[in-house]
Specification:
By secondary structure, the chain is mostly helical.
């Protein structure tokens, strides 16, 4: 039986989606005028940058995508290029959220509309992106990657995780804390 090389990323997606749900809920409240916790958005940006981007994408972009290319998937005009483009688009939304939340935190008015626009854009992008990875790209990877590369990939995932000790636990607690506040 082949070693599963995508299940760990599917599990990480679950925590990312929990944060996306919080972003969606709080953004709806922001639009209603009942939410003004700018620190939440700064915490969400930190989560996205450190957990989703640095921790999760280190495995995805630096290990899985590289293995797929080495095993015959084209780098350009391919699912990999599309995923990279969506990662970059997501980063653009995150920069805008961060900038607007910092300004709002400093008392500058008019930032809520910017946060709403980019938070909604990011959430929509990420939900579709994760669906494509979980339902299309990851099953494809499981079918085409040979067993001899899988052990090395799992080892590379562990190495990537060790670059950020305690990061997963810290971010899980962050999400759980905001989920408890939302109840």
């Amino acid at each position: 039986m082949k070693a599963n090389i995508t299940q760990i990323m599917v599990e990480e997606h679950k925590l990312i989606l929990r944060m996306i749900t919080l972003v969606e809920q709080n953004t709806a409240r922001l639009e209603e005028g009942t939410f003004r916790n700018w620190q939440f958005y700064l915490d969400a940006v930190d989560f996205i940058r450190n957990y989703a981007d640095r921790f999760h994408h280190a495995k995805e972009e630096d290990v899985l995508f590289v293995a797929l290319i080495k095993n015959g998937m084209p780098e350009k005009q391919s699912p990999i290029e599309a995923m990279h483009m969506e990662h970059d688009e997501g980063r653009s939304h995150v920069r805008a959220i961060e900038e607007a939340a910092q300004k709002a935190n400093a008392g500058e008015t008019g930032q809520a509309v910017i946060i709403v626009e980019h938070a909604k854009g990011y959430a929509k992008l990420l939900r579709g992106h994760i669906e494509k990875e979980d339902d299309i790209l990851y099953p494809l990877a499981e079918r085409i990657l040979p067993e001899e590369v899988r052990v090395g990939m799992l080892s590379a995932y562990t190495t990537a995780e060790q670059q950020s000790p305690g990061l997963e636990k810290k971010n899980r607690k962050l999400v759980e804390g905001y989920e408890q506040q939302a109840v």
